[in-house]
Amino acid sequence: MDLRDTTGHEPVRLTAEQVADLLETVYAANGRMAAEVELIVGSRTAVSQSTVDRLPRLADELGPGAAARAELAALESGLLMAGTSSWMRRRRTASATASARAAQRWSGGQSV
User: Fold this and answer.
1) How many domains does the chain have?
2) Residue 53 lies in a domain
3) pLDDT tens, 5-17?
4) What is the number of other CB atoms lying within 10 angstroms of the CB of residue 20?
């Protein structure tokens, strides 16, 4: 997709890897939101000054995710699919690497 920056410069063509970066940003923001909601719901005093004080920080932390989601919504479907494939490949690779490290750790350092 061609996107113009806010200064009106020439359009920028996103790559599938850049789309994967946007997806990762949204994923991280969703996780951050879920963790905060869980903390609030699990608190004995969900409505407290502490919660109110955390909300502006949470809004700042979620801003990049909201911006990324807006960019993703404007993409053509082929590029979005290519980016999704790249993102999923990254996630599988990261998961496989983490699993291998855990298996090695739990096997006493021996190859599994």
Assistant:
1) 1
2) yes
3) 555 555 568 999 9
4) 21
Write out pLDDT tens, residues 17-51. Answer: 999 999 999 999 999 999 999 988 888 887 888 88
CB 72 within 8 A of CB 82: no
**Is the Cα torsion angle 31, 36, 41, 44 positive or negative in sign?**
positive
Half-sphere exposure of 86 (CA within 13 A, CB side): 16
Is 78 within a domain? yes
Q: Provide the residue count of the chain.
A: 112
* Predicted TM-score of the model (pTM): 0.73
Q: Residue 57 belongs to what H/E stretch?
A: helix 49-73
Q: Which helix (H) or strand (E) holds 3?
A: strand 2-3
Domain that holds residue 7: 2-106
Q: Hey, is 110 helix, strand or coil?
A: coil
Q: Which residues pair with 12 in a beta bridge?
A: 3
19 within 8 A of 83, measured Cβ to Cβ = yes
